[in-house]
Amino acid sequence: MVWRTTFITMSTCFLLGTTSTHWIADHNVLWRNPVTPEALATSVKYYSLLNAAPKGLGWVYVIIGLVAILSVCGRGIKGYKGNGGEVLFDGGSFVLSAAIAYTQLSDVGPTIALFPSPLPGSLHDHPTYPALVTAVRDLATNNVMTAVMLTGLMLLQAGRYYSKKPSASPPTTVDDSLVSTPVRAPSPEKQPSPVSKRSGTPYRELTEAEALELNSDDVQKSASKRRGTKKR
After folding, report:
1. What is the pLDDT of residues 36-94, one digit of tens each?
2. Is the pLDDT assigned to residue 172 strictly greater than 80?
3. What integer pLDDT is reported at residue 92 of this predicted model?
4. How far apart (Å, rounded) are the C-alpha atoms in residues 138 and 140?
5. How many CB atoms lie within 10 A of CB 22?
6. Of 135, 109, 15, which is closest to residue 67 (Cα–Cα)?
């Protein structure tokens, strides 16, 4: 349904945006070689502040994650029952959602909880510094993995929408009985001879019947003249 698509899309965009904000601390750990102590200290301070954030922000993150998971599960159940679902897209979305939830609950959340708040004054000399350095490296890796899985979830939703999009309407069929057969042009041999152009003028050719009638009139006139001369 439309509301499932809306919930999945909006929650996925929110989770991807919040995960991308960690890039300000993760890029120095992942893409800088060699990794400097200042970059590690910046990442440790960032996650320490994140651990000290109000608990309400964490619950917002959890609630939106639950909305995404429940929407994906509902769509997967609907597709399993054969009510217009797509096995490929719904199954892939369910697997990615489960992997994201497992990563957040088993790795990201417990690791962020390890960061002390406030941090000790001499961070580099503190006994927990090596463990914190390992923690920021793990968090950077997990955040990248989460961002990739969230992007894959959005691509699956886009693919599902494209697969359900109606295609172009099929061409309309025409009943053969209603189609009139084309009239063939007469062959040049069977075409009637063109009418003489003189038929449109005051002087036209006489037909055979008219010619015979005129000849009979002339014969009668000549015969009557002969009779008249004989009587004289």
Report:
1. 888 888 898 999 888 888 888 888 988 998 998 888 888 777 766 655 556 777 788 88
2. no
3. 82
4. 5
5. 21
6. 15
